[in-house]
Amino acid sequence: AELKKASKRLTCHKRYKIQKKIREHHRKVRKEAKKRGRKKPKKDPGVPSAAPFKEELLREAEQRKQRLEELKQKQKLNRQKEHEKKRKLEAKKNAAKIKEKAEGKESSGKSKAKTNKLLDKNSKKSFCRELKKVIEASDVVLEVLDARDPMGCRCPQLEQAVTCSGGDKKLLLVLNKIDLVPKENLEKWLNYLKKEFPTIAFKSATLMKDRTMEQFTKRRARVDLSRTTECFGSKCLLKLLQDHVRTQNKAIQVGVVGFPNVGKSSIINSLKGVRACNVGLTRGVTKSMQIVHIDKQTKILDSPSIIADPSNNTLALALRTILNTEETASAGVLEGVDAILNHCSKQQVMMHYSIPDFRNTEEFLTLLAQKRGMLKKGGVPDIENIAKVLLCDWTGAKISYHSQPPESHRRPPYLTEDITAKMQECFNLKNLEEENKNAVQALKCPSPASSITFQSAGMTNGTIQENKVIEEVSEWENLETSMEGEEDEEEDFTESDDDQDDVEEKHKVQVTRKAKLGKRQTSPTNSEKQIAESEHSNSLSLSLDKTADEDDAYDFNTDYV
């Protein structure tokens, strides 16, 4: 006998109950939609039959649809092509890795050389190469100094390279950012520096317009109009260069060199009168030699920044390093801020930032972060970012601080009286002094009370030769080798105990290599900072030996109150 299907009949009570629930649900949905403010999409009414040119309008609409479809198809094809390219690149990389493992050390060395070539543009060695090109090509070298710390911006290696190069190569000192220093202090520095090299007081023009910039824009950025866009010292510098051209009877090339954020590119822009070179607060904007024609007889060569030697003290490394503060480690930034605060008077810093008394740098940064509203989730002050901002302010043109010149004048060992006389030849020094005085008098300078007194750490050592540059790529190579070692260990984990012992020996050899590298970096002549860095690198290398279980192990015997 066939089974009867279950009846779908319901009692009226149950049916009415279901209908009621449905009505309530629909009401609820409508209410929520009303709150959100979402309305139903209106249907396209179409073109009314009475409208004139109805057929033409419909044709246009169809054409639009076709165009949109074509665009979508093109985009789809482009995406597919990009995906294919990526797949091919990945396949090539995988093939290269397999080849490297098969070939051994030779193939790995070649691949590393290729990667080094690719990374060569932004490397320190390329910066040195470009700087050397500028020094060799130029007849006159302009060493740009920050008027707030002129001694800290001087590089003895550069000055020695120019003075001992031979020929008629001249070196001039350009004292930039003179509007951030009190007049008395500026005059003292001009009197001190002119004893060694001809010195020009300079204030580069800000808010320079680019040739390609549109005159009228819809949105106008907020511009600080309190600071003048007027340039001081440009006429004097151009006059000196023209005098040198007359004496030489030939066209000259002028190289502009100096540490980062000193104002090299801005000086070139103010001499040209147009924004010819890129300018920015970030360090190391100029990465290669740039030629700017001022007139028929003079060419100016813009150069990348001088690389500060790692043997310098923490203050010099904080203010003069080529690395951007965004890329540097948080510990290095905090050390730099600590060094700056130690070399300033505490009361003046408190007055400038309008902050109450603080015990250490961390407390100072927390107070500053709270004041400026730089907070993380939960109202925690963002110390790392405020430290980076503070470093940018001190290297940029925001804060007014000044350092005193040495009481007794001592010549550097590479600079003799004959060399100074040679450097001062062909220049009208009396006229230069008068021009400097006029520039200082015409300029609006801050008062000594509003400017922070700063203790200079002396000349900053720089590396000019490529051979002496310690590249950071080597550290990445070490990390790569360690990662490769770890991968090999993972592959060989399933093998016999003898193979595991060999892997452990290899790993120990890697650790010893890293330890040796750390020892090489820390020489007895190096500063305390370098020693700390080497210890940090050693600790990192040793931490690779520890397994995840050891690091993340939990001690159940500990009691928490």
From TrEMBL:
Task: Extract the ranges annotated as region (Disordered).
Answer: 1-117, 479-561
Which top-rank group of organisms is this from? Eukaryota
Where composition is biased (Acidic residues), the residues are 479-503
Stretches with biased composition (Polar residues): 520-529
Q: Which PROSITE patterns match?
A: G_CP
Q: Could you tell me where the Basic residues compositional bias lies?
A: 1-42, 509-519
Q: Where is the CP-type G domain?
A: 128-309
Molecular function (GO) terms for this protein are: GTP binding
Q: Which GO terms describe its cellular component?
A: nucleolus
Mind telling me which InterPro entries this protein's record contains? Answer: G_CP_dom, Gnl3_N_dom, GTP-bd, GTP-bd_ortho_bundle_sf, P-loop_NTPase, TRAFAC_YlqF/YawG_RiboMat
Residue spans with biased composition (Basic and acidic residues)? 53-83, 91-109
Q: Which SUPFAM superfamilies match?
A: P-loop containing nucleoside triphosphate hydrolases
Protein's UniProt keywords contain Nucleus: yes
Q: Where in the cell is it found?
A: Nucleus, Nucleolus
Sorted alphabetically, which keywords does the UniProt record give? Coiled coil, GTP-binding, Nucleotide-binding, Nucleus
User: Per its record, how is this protein called by name?
Assistant: Guanine nucleotide-binding protein-like 3
